[in-house]
Amino acid sequence: MKILLGPREPLEKALRRFKRVCSDAGVFSDIKKGAYFEKPSERKRRAQRKRLKNIAQASSGIARGQRSTNSSGARGGRK
């Protein structure tokens, strides 16, 4: 990862940009995953749960940002 400092840019601001770039690239999550040993069966089980969660979200419309609203617009649902 490389961050270029602008002229008169504070070091704290550049450090925040560097952390954001690392976070977006997934560096921190990779480090956390390698912090302890995970059995292959646990890794497969976690991946399966993630797939099922993604399928459930896609089928319910949550992932696409679609929400069901009632016709009255009120929370109670009475007309």
Question: How would you characterize this protein structure?
Answer:
The chain has 79 residues and is mostly helical. Helices cover 54% and strands 0% of the residues. The chain contains three helices and no strands. It is elongated, with a radius of gyration of 22 Å. 0% of the residues are buried.
Tell me briefly what this model is.
By secondary structure, this protein is an all-alpha fold. The protein is 54% helix and 0% strand.
Bin the helical content.
40-55%
Radius of gyration computed on alpha carbons:
22 Å
* Count of DSSP-assigned helices: 3
Low-pLDDT stretches are none
Cα(first) to Cα(last) distance is 57 Å
Find the count of extended strands (DSSP E, 2+ residues): 0
Structural class call reads mainly alpha
Order of helices and strands: HHH
What's the pLDDT, averaged over the residues? Answer: 84
Determine the strand fraction and express it as a percent band: under 5%
> The biggest beta sheet, please?
none
* Anisotropy-based shape: elongated
Keywords summarizing the entry:
3 helices; 79 residues; mainly alpha
How does the SSE layout of this entry go?
Elements: H1 11-25, H2 27-33, H3 40-60
